[in-house]
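Hey Z.,

So I finally got round to the 2-acetamido-2-deoxy-beta-D-glucopyranose thing we talked about over coffee. Here's the setup:
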Amino acid sequence: MTNSEKQHHQKPHAIFIPYPLQGHVIPAVHLAIKLASQGFIITFINTHSIHHQTSKAHNNSDDIFAAIRDSGLDIRYTTLSDGLPVGFDRSLYHDQFMASLLHVFSAHVEEAVGKIVKESKETVTCLIADTFFVWPSAIAKKFGLLYVSFWTEPALIFTLYYHLHLLRMNGHFACQDVREDPIDYIPGVKTIDPKDTMSYLQESDTSSVCHQIIFSAFRDVRGADFVLCNTVQEIEPETIAALEAKMPFYAIGPIFPSGFTKSAVATSLWSESDCTQWLDTKPEGSVLYISFGSYAHVTKRDLVEIANGLLLSNVTFVWVLRPDIVSSEDVDPLPVGFKEAVSDRSMILTWCCQNQVLAHPAIGGFLTHCGWNSILESIWCKVPLLCFPLYTDQFTNRKLVVDDWKIGINLSDRKVVTKKEVSEKINRLMNGKSGNDPYRTKFIELKKALENAWVANGTSLKNMDSFINGLKAKAQTHCGLVL
Ligand SMILES: *[C@@H]1O[C@H](CO)[C@@H](O)[C@H](O)[C@H]1NC(C)=O
Ligand SMILES: *[C@@H]1O[C@H](CO)[C@@H](O)[C@H](O)[C@H]1NC(C)=O
Ligand SMILES: *[C@@H]1O[C@H](CO)[C@@H](O)[C@H](O)[C@H]1NC(C)=O
Ligand SMILES: *[C@@H]1O[C@H](CO)[C@@H](O)[C@H](O)[C@H]1NC(C)=O
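And the result:
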């Protein structure tokens, strides 16, 4: 088909490639749906591995978007190899997985994008890809596409990575005798303690594959035509304003499933157990929800202290415990007798629909690894957080939750966690609801910001409009297309 024939089709067509990790795929799927409902054609690309695990968990077939397509959205779906066999244990061999994404995946992406561009009836306008990929600028350029970078973490994290050169220059990163005093020269960040930066910025060996990915990705993102971030203007105003002054940065969060608790598209990698009937029998705000997310590992020592802390606390709880929470080589890490001892006041599940659990009135607290999706969801449900960050952005997210917003408490202040402290902190968190709830006012403010972001005149709605208009204008001058 020639270009002039293609020009009769006026919808922007985006190829969307999420990072192949659960926490990245979830907001990507829901952003894809949002864009499709705004008139985009989307070709969504998952890795074979993510696709295989998702469809196995939900017994569905070839196409995770099948159900939503009936509602008239034009979302096409395809899958690609990330360079490793589907059965490879990516979580256990994290570095090999990351190395494959760094060195091999781009060749598969390039081939697939070339094929889609060639075979699509409609001109492909842009490549939407996770900021952590190292190749989007180059591949977009090769096929004449605009590059839209999708950032699934807070703006604060983005800006810290984006300004790595300043951290180096000032001796806060990648040098001998790294400075320990607060960082106060990042535009839009008043001050941040080096201990609250991302785990990768606190390591002395900066030659790991993850460091290479971060360095390359944040070089590449300078070539992005647009950056979309799953945050909300009102919750990180200074940081976002500083970024907006510098680049086409758009805060368009929170990206949730349209019904929040019910997603038309299955995104979880494990099948979900339903504990709502059990929760229905519990008093309001009385149950602690515990999850360390989809990927991070907890050491056996910490896991045992947390379990024993739960035992001491007497609290009722739902614990989502992936089989590989410690390691896929240690599938039953709980202390002997623990499950029996707490059987009358707990549900221990492999996985659940987190939004549904957090939204349940019985939930009164969330012991979390501080993943960004979990924090946004917790704000939405006004559930205070007990923070146990494990790696990457989670330390920095903890700072936002505990130090800046004051909607949660630290579990351990980075010291070794003990069962006594776990029990005390759990009870402190859960007692917040009774008596004088210290989190209430801030939750009302943050929830309102999230809610208002997507209503008329809301900041995310406006930012999304301005992104779409900007994309259309740029596509017109860039590719000579009328969109
Ligand atoms: C998928 O199928 C298996 C076996 O037939 C069944 O045990 C499981 O509950 C199903 N899962 C879902 C999400 O439907
Ligand atoms: C838990 O229950 C036991 C037995 O009733 C009691 O001795 C203990 O003080 C309780 N612990 C807390 C933290 O409430
Ligand atoms: C929480 O822990 C961090 C270290 O991770 C510490 O800097 C901060 O002061 C602690 N905050 C509170 C309120 O205890
Ligand atoms: C949106 O803002 C404009 C300009 O401030 C105002 O005229 C309009 O009434 C607002 N619309 C809604 C629905 O609030």
